[in-house]
Amino acid sequence: MKINKSACVMVLYILFLMLPIYWLINMSFKTNQDILNSFSLWPNNFTFDNYIVIFTDPSWYKGYLNSITYVVMNTLISLAVALPAAYAFSRYSFMGDKHLFFWLLSNRMAPPAVFALPFFQLYSSVGLFDTHIAVALAHTLFNVPLAVWILEGFMRGVPKEIDETAYIDGYGFFGFFRKIFMPLIASGIGVAAFFCFMFSWVELLLSRTLTSVDAKSIAATMTRTASASGLDWGLLAAAGVLTIIPGALVIYFVRNHIAKGFALGRV
Amino acid sequence: MSLQLENISLSVDGQRHIHATSLTLEKSTMNVLLGPTLSGKTSLMRLMAGLDMPTSGRILWNGKDVTKTRVQDRDIAMVYQQFINYPSMSVYENIASPLRIMRKNQNEIDKAVKKSADLMKLGPYLHRKPLELSGGQQQRCALARALVKESGLVLLDEPLANLDYKLREELRAEIPKIFAESGAIFVYATTEPEEALLLGGNTATLHQGAITQFNKTNQVYHQPQDTITAKTFSNPPMNFLKLTKEGSSITLGDKAHINSEPKSLDIDKGSADRHELTTVGHFKHLPDGDYIAGFRSNHLELHRHNPQSIAFTTTLDITEITGSETFLHMNYDNDHWVGLVHGVHDLALGEKLEVFLDPSHIYTFGLDGNIVASASYAKGI
Prior knowledge:
The complex is a heterodimer of chains A (about 270) and B (about 375). Chain A is mainly α.
């Protein structure tokens, strides 16, 4: 029988790619005893207990709600700031625009750990510690430059004459921006939102430093649980699975735009 | 309705893009801005539209100063060389967009869109997106949007330049119709003299950011004021050579270089033929001296039709046959001449070729490039 070589490579590739994720899912349906005592490729004593704990214990599910709250806030703030900024960079030349554009991006070069201490002190002193907005604002430091960078690429692809035609037709700036311009860069907005969402969702250090109880993120919850009551493997695995899901959903919805984004913009 | 530019100039980063220009465009006129690329057609148009602020000068619309008026508040429509439509809207919505801003009611919008879409032959495509149309249809969509607004000033910036030959011919024939119906001031920028002649109306020739002449199109064509205008408004460009008048004799030949210092008058050393003309026609009143003679390529002939015609012996470099016409690229005493003759001619390249020129087709320019005497054939036009 003839063996399709490229299919073999593909199967192996997917196998390696999916193995850790499969292992996580596998663990999440096992009991702790199962995980620690025997090696098996599938759950011997299939159980939903781990998930039930997460969905019933407020200290767990509130972690998700907190994370989603500040991630959405962050995405909205980042886009609201980045859209006008990117428009300015793409349409006007002003003093130092090229330098500013580069320096914006260089913000992303610093590791979040560098900012953990100043943010903690700053937010504590103005009373923002342990609030959703604190984390959202902290993350904009990294997300706004990236969003500006992505959006600028998309906006540059729209000829300036479209702006002018709209003005000649009688559109004011905001009418033009909302009705004509935004639909043209919808893919870019989608891609930018995606990157903001993903960064904010997986970022651990700042979100853990800036929250304690009320706005505790799921990532923080997971690490703290691990250290407090010994390792509850099954529970952590279930939490991990639930953490992957929002990201996977977002990717699924913007996948077409992402492909366009990689081609058109400058992601 | 009138648009008046008063000493409008534009400098960008210290560079002069438009030299101080004054121009008055009257109600229901077709005005052509003719000039090569980078001559300032688009810059001038953008100033008229208010998309750019002039560095100095004023723009008056119906006598009112609109120099600082926002684009939105001006009574204008514009079509670009690139096909500019709103890609996310249907053709219908594209055309309707200026009317929606004016808050017209749906019935009026429907009627107006239908009308201009029919005029632009877009009727069957109203539900499509602009990018699903062919290039010509996209440009028609842009034209329809400009028309539906019924503004007093319609600016067309080389609207046909990006279209293929056939579509260009088609649309070109439609533009005078549209113009006749609208009664607005049309400004039409083009690089092609033929287009200016076809559209008629008035023509302003541009050269390096300055208007060299503005008048009725025919007038500018037949009585150019200087060599630059003559060159701009001839395709292929006008041919030039030196003309010397001494008493009753006129010598054509030697080399005449436009825009350069007058060369010393050592005709005998030149290898070119010398042509003695009796002082006939419009040459009679010329004072003695050196001039530049100019004539259009279509006035060169392969046969002597007029006993007065002058014969030039040139070397034929290239012939371009377009089907019904033949372009002859010739070398005359190291000057490049172009001749345009009817019919297909099978001529040997690199050989000597005798061509004839009726003296009544010669324009006489001073060495500074300004016209001294128009060709006598054009006097009555």
